[in-house]
Amino acid sequence: AYAGIDHRFRFENIGKGVIVVAPAAYSYFGTQRFSKTYQQQKRFLIFPVGEEEITQHNSTFNTLSYEFSCPIIYGIGKMNLVINPAYVLPQHVVAVDGTPVKADPLFYTTATIRFDF
User: Fold this and answer.
1) Helix locations, 21-96, DSSP H
2) How far is CA 77 from the centre of its chain?
């Protein structure tokens, strides 16, 4: 699931084209399911008498990340140039052994050229 807000601003007559700027902020949510299996020794008084395999299951609905982006589109004729910088803040990242870890924020950008025929 996700929720967000965005708005487009259009600037006409920039040279022979149009510029559209669309800042956005989104939150992404999801269910995280984990299981842990381990061996536990059974005892009678002070003597070990065997082992029992125990499995624990956990399921939680969490915020997975926040994303902020600001696509910039320059349209001229039938061609669009798109640059989309984005900043992502991961949340509730879990390592392989189930231990919570802190993930570093990520900045990335994509560039696209699109032609309409």
Assistant:
1) none
2) 35
